[in-house]
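Q: Please design a sequence for this.
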């Protein structure tokens, strides 16, 4: 435990040193004149501020503990004064331990808490129409959870089926703490139930995949001017006679990664382009962040998982009203409530497990 605290304090000293460096840089006239660098440094400073403030409070508390101990070790001190010092020492020790836990939590989860916008992609997997209906149910679950937290949901792309299922849906969720709560949802989701399409009452197993991508600001990701090729064409599919007369469909290809995004949901080429760029930026950002995570995970124990679509993370068993999260071996017999948007318990369990794993890997 002492070893863990020592390594934590070394890390905190480094963070405070970087914070002080940023303070000096921000007052440098050369930086003030460079608006892009100034904004970048200000954002970094903002992310570090909470940790540095708590660390400085921790150092003040430690100094108070040392002063109280000096009084207690002074045999010439007045007894009433020593009694006051004893009570102060008790309170300061409690505060020290509390601050240390707060600092740990802030340090290991700060990056997640700092992202307030995500793009989620849900696609029907194996199971035909039933898989599409399950994808719809997942979308409804997430949007209801978001509504309960006053988060804003914006649909970016949608492809439906005749029975009301979703082949694919891409949407943005924005609000405080969005990434810290929803990024665990990335992966393969499996459902076991009697489908609406089943007349014999047999239980089927179907699947859908979910991707959760942090939506970066343009400053957070640099995309070279010549790295993206844009192709414009006429839209196809439903939309009336005007859909094929205008070149409104936009296809973007990022040459270095091969990532492509096509968008034709809107009649306006400008709106399709804007949506396509938002999705492209998020996919490129996730691509490079995924590489960083893979490198880190080779050097240490994996936490909850990469959120890769091939990883089966959860099973929704309707006959037993059971949700099972396979990553943390959690089973909850309240699937009806969870699928209706009451996801708090499962997300809290994932966050708790994740925090402990991160602390172990500090």
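A: Design:
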């Amino acid at each position: 435990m002492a070893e863990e605290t020592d390594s934590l304090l070394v890390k905190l000293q480094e963070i405070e040193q970087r914070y002080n460096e940023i303070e000096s840089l921000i007052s440098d006239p050369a930086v003030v004149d460079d608006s892009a660098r100034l904004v970048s440094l200000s954002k970094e400073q903002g992310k570090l501020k909470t940790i540095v403030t708590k660390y400085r409070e921790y150092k003040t508390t430690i100094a108070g503990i040392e002063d109280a101990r000096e009084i207690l070790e002074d045999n010439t001190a007045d007894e009433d004064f020593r009694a006051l010092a004893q009570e102060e020492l008790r309170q300061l020790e409690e505060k020290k331990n509390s601050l240390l836990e707060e600092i740990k939590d802030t340090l290991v989860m700060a990056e997640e808490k700092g992202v307030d916008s995500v793009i989620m992609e849900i696609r029907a997997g194996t199971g035909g129409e039933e898989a599409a209906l399950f994808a719809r149910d997942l979308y409804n679950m997430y949007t209801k959870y978001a509504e309960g937290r006053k988060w804003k949901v914006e649909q970016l792309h949608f492809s439906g089926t005749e029975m009301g299922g979703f082949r694919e849906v891409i949407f943005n969720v924005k609000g405080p703490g969005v990434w810290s709560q929803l990024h665990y949802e990335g992966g393969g989701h499996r459902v076991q139930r009697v489908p609406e399409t089943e007349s014999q009452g047999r239980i089927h197993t179907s699947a859908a995949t979910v991707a959760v991508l942090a939506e970066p600001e343009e400053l957070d990701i640099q995309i070279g001017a010549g790295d993206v090729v844009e192709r414009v064409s006429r839209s196809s599919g439903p939309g009336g006679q005007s859909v094929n007369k205008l070149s409104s469909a936009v296809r973007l290809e990022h040459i270095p990664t091969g990532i492509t995004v096509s968008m034709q949901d809107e009649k306006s080429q400008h709106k399709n382009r804007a949506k396509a760029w938002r999705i492209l930026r998020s996919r490129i950002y996730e691509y490079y962040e995924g590489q960083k995570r893979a490198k880190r995970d080779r050097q240490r124990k994996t936490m909850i998982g990469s959120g890769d679509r091939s990883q089966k993370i959860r099973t929704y068993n309707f006959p037993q009203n059971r949700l099972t999260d396979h990553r943390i071996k959690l089973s909850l017999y309240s699937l009806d409530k969870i699928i209706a948007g009451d996801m708090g318990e499962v997300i809290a369990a994932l966050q708790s497990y994740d925090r402990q794993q991160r602390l172990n890997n500090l």
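Q: Thanks. Anything notable?
A: Residues 239-243, 299-303 have pLDDT under 50 and may be disordered. Residues 2-113 form a domain with the Methane Monooxygenase Hydroxylase; Chain G, domain 1 fold (CATH 1.20.58).
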